[in-house]
Specification:
By secondary structure, the chain is α+β, with helices and mostly antiparallel strands. About 40% of the residues lie in helices and about 30% in strands. The chain starts with a helix and ends with a strand.
């Protein structure tokens, strides 16, 4: 439409109409370029495990955290994050959110939902074992949003002391 206004102004040789079409078309093209760049930046960021770690825990991965793997999906009314990394138990304890409640293996078996849709990453080898350490947050409300803006949120953080591997999973659904 703006290009049409510019062509019409050029044909009729009306300077202000040519400028109106030109400035508007350049403005719309600039907005489109910024939108594409923003989407590309988001996709690239979501593929970086260190960025996902920082997003979920609020800090950059400390030096004691290594071998970070992540899977991140966030679109419309669903959010899903998987993180797996190696760390000391001391560092794991520092990363536990105040919103998570400590649970036993039996409570985890009872209270956690199964993996939704079976679309877990290939490297996701999370288990419920009696010697692991577990933290859980299950939230559901029809009246208000959870911590990350969903009406139903499940979040757990587990640690295997033998292998020093930590597992974090969040899923939110509206």
């Amino acid at each position: 439409a703006f290009a049409g206004i510019w062509f019409w102004g050029r044909k009729k040789n009306i300077t202000w109409v040519k400028w109106l079409g030109k400035v508007s078309a350049i403005g719309m093209a600039t907005i489109a370029i910024f939108l594409v760049a923003f989407i590309a930046w988001g996709i690239i960021r979501s593929m970086n495990p260190r960025s996902i770690f920082k997003e979920e825990f609020g800090i950059a991965p400390p030096a004691s955290v290594s071998k970070i793997q992540s899977s991140y999906y966030w679109f419309a009314d669903t959010g899903d994050v998987y993180l797996r990394f190696q760390t000391s138990q001391e560092e794991f304890d520092k990363l536990v959110s105040v919103n998570l409640k400590k649970k036993t293996a039996e409570e985890m078996k009872r209270d956690t939902p199964g993996e939704y849709g079976g679309d877990t990453p290939d490297w996701w080898d999370y288990q419920i074992q009696s010697d692991w350490i577990y933290y859980l947050r299950v939230y559901s409300s029809a009246n208000e949003s959870g911590l990350k803006g969903f009406f139903s949120e499940d979040e757990y953080f587990a640690y295997n002391p033998k292998t020093q591997i930590a597992y974090y999973h969040f899923i939110g659904i509206d």
